[in-house]
């Protein structure tokens, strides 16, 4: 969870913000407390433009990690007039199934029909 970082760019600045200030796990219980970092709270809760909204109910029903990632990707484009098009290789890279530098073996390769 500590690796979740957001990049915020404006005309004059470039920022890297971490989402969580603290994550506290309770031993012997299935619960945790999350404290959002102050700068990220402002970005998440005081947005008027340049943000992506999700339908919470729809997102929570997804069980596959790839389905969740795809939902995030397509939600970014739902209010746009244009339709985004990517090659299969680009799509695999977005889902972290393919190393963009080609050093790691590709996951889910097409092995041909038998």
Architecture overview:
It comes from Hymenobacter swuensis DY53. Residues 3-74 form the Initiator Rep protein WH1 domain. GO terms for molecular function: DNA-directed DNA polymerase activity. This protein is an alpha+beta fold and 114 residues long. It is built from four helices and four strands. It has a domain at 1-49. It has a two-stranded antiparallel sheet with strand order 1-2. The termini are far apart.
Quick tags:
114 residues, alpha+beta, two-stranded antiparallel ribbon, two-stranded antiparallel sheet, 4 helices, 4 strands, 18% strand
Q: Percent range for helical residues?
A: 25-40%
| SSE pattern, N- to C-terminal | EEEEHHHH
Largest sheet: 2 strands, antiparallel
Sequence of strands across the biggest β-sheet: 1-2
What overall form do the CA principal axes indicate?
A: extended
* Proportion in β-strands: 15-25%
**Unreliable segments (pLDDT under 50, ≥5 consecutive)?**
none
State mean pLDDT (0 to 100 scale): 71
Count of DSSP H/I helices:
4
Structural class: alpha+beta
Number of strands: 4
How far apart, in Å, are the first and last alpha carbons?
A: 42 Å
Radius of gyration (CA) equals 18 Å
Family: Belongs to the initiator RepB protein family.
InterPro entries: Initiator_Rep_WH1, WH-like_DNA-bd_sf, WH_DNA-bd_sf
Domain Initiator Rep protein WH1: 3-74
Keywords: Plasmid
């Amino acid at each position: 969870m500590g690796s979740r970082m957001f990049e915020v760019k404006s005309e004059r600045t470039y920022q890297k913000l971490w989402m969580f200030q603290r994550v506290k796990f309770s031993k012997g219980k299935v619960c945790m407390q999350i404290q959002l970092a102050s700068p990220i709270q402002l970005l998440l809760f005081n947005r008027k433009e340049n943000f992506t909204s999700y339908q919470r109910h729809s997102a929570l029903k997804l069980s596959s990690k790839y389905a969740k990632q795809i939902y995030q990707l397509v939600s970014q484009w739902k209010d746009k007039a244009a339709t985004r098009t990517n090659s299969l290789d680009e799509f695999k890279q977005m889902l972290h199934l393919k190393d963009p530098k080609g050093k790691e073996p590709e996951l889910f390769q097409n092995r041909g029909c038998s």
